[in-house]
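Now read the record:
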Amino acid sequence: MSERVLITGGGSGIGAGLARAFAARGDRVAICDSDPEAVARCAAELPGAIARTADVTDEAGMAAFLSEVEAEWGGVDVVCANAGTGGPAGRIETLDYAAWQACIATSLHGAFLTCRWAARLMRAQGSGLIVLTSSTAGLAGYPLRSPYSAAKWAIVGLTKTLAMELGPAGVRVNAICPGAVEGPRMDRVVAMEAAASGRSEEETRELYVRGVSLRTWVSVEDVAAAVLHLASPAARRISGQILAIDGHTETLAP
């Protein structure tokens, strides 16, 4: 049976992978992203999808996008609060306050606006799944990346709380914690962390691999497969869980 699936940050990376995976199984998909070019690519790749440019930190812009989806679908079955940003890299005494705020706003405030809308609809219909994107940085300390880690830890707390609030209404809430996911975003992160630490990009990449038990990076497809499982009948009793998709991170320390 086709489901109605909304994904924030759906224009690239994990979000685009989720959009492709849900569409491939026959679901209706709606995505938003702050990058108009990414939105255009998604619209071209997934005919019939609702694809809109919206910044998850803009309450008015998100209200317009979410209202359009609600008017079109009348409800929603799966919501992936996925939008996030890597934030700045460096020791905390070197960080700019505006950069800190921007990182927290995209990952946490954006999740709030998305989940507030989803909770209202799902509570009324008595069913639904919310999947929030945290990170392995939401499970451990992450030197030189304090705003990102703080935001992702907050997502874990939000997930646990919403699972308790919405569970009696038949709504499940879980978080995924991807490790280092291959792609342009991690390329930018590696470059940023290399500059902040004084290491080369090659050394920085090797540290990521050595810090994982499986000694490998994660693919977008790995993450999408896990989320599809959460959205399947096989996971109907899974809620309030924090699922690491990372090959088992042993350390994020430099």
Q: What stands out?
A: The chain has one domain: 4-181+219-245. Helices lie at 13-24, 36-45, 59-73, 97-125, 146-166, 184-197, 201-210, 220-230.
